[in-house]
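The records we work with from here on pair a chain with its fold. Taken together, the tokens spell out the fold as the letters spell out the chain. The record below shows the convention in full.
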Amino acid sequence: MAVPKKKTSRARRDRRRSHHALRGPGMVACPNCGEMRLPHRVCPECGYYKGRTVVAVEAVE
């Protein structure tokens, strides 16, 4: 079994982990209403996808 010969320093450990950060989802603007949404998905605000209404969304008053 492989065992480290020396203790890994905090600097070396943190340098290795510098690329482990998570990124937020890539959002795009809806061409119909302008709200931000996930790509390749129906807009939750207006219900449009690829230029047509896919889901009927009720207006909140």
In short: The CA atoms of residues 27 and 38 lie 5 Å apart. The helical segments are 10-16.
